[in-house]
Amino acid sequence: MNPSEEIAKKAKELLQSKAVSCFIGYQRATDGVTARPLFVYTPEEADKLVFDQTCTHNLVKYLLSRKGKATGIVVKPCDSRAINLLLIEHQIERDEVFIIGVVCPGIVEARWNKTSDKLKDICKLCQQHSPVIYDSLVGEPVPELQAEAYPDVARIEALSMAERKAFWEEHFSRCLRCYACRQVCPGCYCSECFAERLDPLWVGIRIAPSENEMWNTMRAFHLSGRCIGCNQCEQVCPVNIPLSLLNRKLEKEALELFKFQAGIDAKTPAPFATFKKDEKIGIGE
Amino acid sequence: MLENPLLPYLATLQDVVDLTPDVKLLKIELSDPDIRKSFEYKLGQFVFISAFGTGEAPFGLTSVYYRHGPLEVAVRRIGTVTRSLHELEPGETIGVRGPFGNHFLLDKYRGKNIFIIGGGIGFAPLRPLITTILDHRNDYADLLILNGARTPQDLVFAPEFDTWAASPRTKLELTVDAGDQTWTGRVALIPTVVKELNLSPDNAIAIICGPPIMIHFTLIELKKLGFADSQIVTTLESKMKCGLGKCARCNIGEKYICRDGPVFSLEQISKLLEKF
Amino acid sequence: MSQFISKKDLLSWLSKLAENRSLVAPARVADSILFRKIDSTEEIVFNFYNTNFSPKEFFFPPSEALFSVEKKDGQIKLVPTVTRGEMVIFGIRPCDAKGIATLDLPYLEEPGDALYIQHRKRTGLIGLSCLTACPECFCTSMGTGPDDASNFDIMLTEVEDGYIVQTVTERGKTLLPEEFLTMKDVALPPAPLISLVPSKGITDKMRQAFDNPYWSRLADRCLHCNICSYVCPTCYCFDIRDCTNKGRIDRVRSWESCQSPGFTKIAGGYDPRADKGSRLRQRLAHKLIYFPEIYGPLHCTGCGRCVKTCPVNIDIREIIQDIQKLERESNA
Hints:
heterotrimer; A: five-stranded mixed β-sheet; B: alpha/beta; Elongation Factor Tu (Ef-tu), domain 3; Rossmann fold; 7 helices
């Protein structure tokens, strides 16, 4: 059985036994080559489910709108880390989710109507090919790979401050504050985002370089120690801002300072959400 | 019409009257004498008031044009713009855009019994109706005013209650959701009072305004009493930005509240695709 | 015989235009093709399906100060924004020109939007007809077509060595001097075939489908990311708020989308359209019912951008097909 068939079979079982009232997976999009999320409510519809290397979406975001309802879900390894994140942050209940984890061969570069064999850059760097939490596994588990490396971040770090400033100013100048990055991110679930606040006014509605910088950098900071690296923010950005770089820079720092990676387990809380009286990280000493 | 309809007229805040702990009555004088002379408005229309630096918000005009006094709006402190407006002192400059919207067809109600039912700050667009009816008392039959609020302190336009109650063929009923130590009046939700008063739909018009949930349940009671859809009128509100039907925000189904409303009969509302 | 301009002369003409006005054309920006003000004709991209964003941003910018509030000697003065200088936009596809014509309907309606009128008055539109269809476009089902010259000042159609020129308006005649044109024995090529979408009678069908649970199911995967409204050549919702910028108060208008959560939330927290399904339905209802009932045309020009960029493939072509089928099912 290929992954699509395995997932469809499992989803059918879950729906038939009423273990879940909805199963969230992927189906073929209208271009015939890429994928889109699918919400399945009846066992018959489960036949539409597919899984392949165009399944880029992180479906975990949808769990936040199904609180209190039993849901089945397909997750890739990065997505599974998002489930741990939401569990630690008490946003979802473990017994409300049936997780089908997929061993991931990497997602290919694909846009509307066009796929390729080329792996996405972020997937080429990925070291986590097996899901970290699941009830059912599709695919053979892959041995742990070496620790995460950040050559993309290092490339920016090698630039001078002036070059870095120019790099980011150029990218942020295109930002339209559509907030698609926030909407797609499973870590962004505040009922009132700081960007919507009027008092104090952090960002406002003007679309201009200073506001754009404020938005993007503050969002990255709010995700520091929490971002699980699914890359969906960059994937959906309609003006191609390399948003992952920002988040991965902070990911790198969290790893170096706290030996911490978000979402690897459902127990270790994030560094910036934890206060330990005897904590020393060498700042100010 | 103004060359730039998004550009406010400058106006001065003439006076501020505290109506309740969170509602103030603002009396506003337009600065430009020509604009002041030509600013004509009808019952039920609204304006956008600007607190420069914060923004604008829509408010129903609670004064009557024919008295040629300052523009009056009742402002409840609930968001950023209303908070800024509450912090203003008489003499400060604000902005006014309008008047917008349709109006109450008071002429059609001549000779009829009129029931005016309002809850909380929703009473603000109803007050000019009362003023007009009382100033032209013989044009209308019986008048019943039902004014409700959460607590006795939240009843708006209390200074006018005596004048209203003393008018001929006029009855004033007050009600609160919860009384206090000195309150001896009615303690009941507005829909319950409507039921108790057993209002007769004969030759009558009911005009209601208030929080969505109050309107919803009051409509149910009025329908039970036999009121036809065309005998019930309400004024709706929504989030608004331009007031001109150009920002595509305030629609309920196919109607824009800023242009086709805010005054709607139940007959019109029941034909709409969207149900709020 | 048709009016003709050689590729070489076209570039000379555009350079000449750029001497005393802003020239906007499709240009490569990061991985996208976007309309940008260009300094040299070398920046112009000629070989493209369509830009990632429509040219509506030059008439209805993403963010624009309506006026600023000046405080002097204790007096407040409102200074409305005034746009200066002429502009020409080159390389617009017919679907986008139809988009601008569609935006004219609410914005030019009395009382006209002052800033939009300023932008419209000072801007010339030079079109590039489509020789091939994009995989996602469906303009002929939305009241226009790949060779529709009606909403331009000048329309160009590529032929061998240059372009056939159709001068549509007086402004077009003024913009393109005779010296650049010749008469050539060449005819307009046949227009490419565009995929069809069953838009006929969609307003009534959409009305009938209004309360169908279809919308709730469709909205399950919607992220409310606003991208569809932002890439759309006809969407025109905006937000207005005062912004303080280094002590100066501006009243700013910016793009917004009926899809964003909180679009209809009033102070105090009540939101009549809090439900995802009704928010998504609002977008389609506005496009297929409310706008045509007030102004005439459907609120879509078939450019296909929303289809291309929606991260979860909410496809208006599929939706229109589904709505047509829904009605038939309920009648069966």
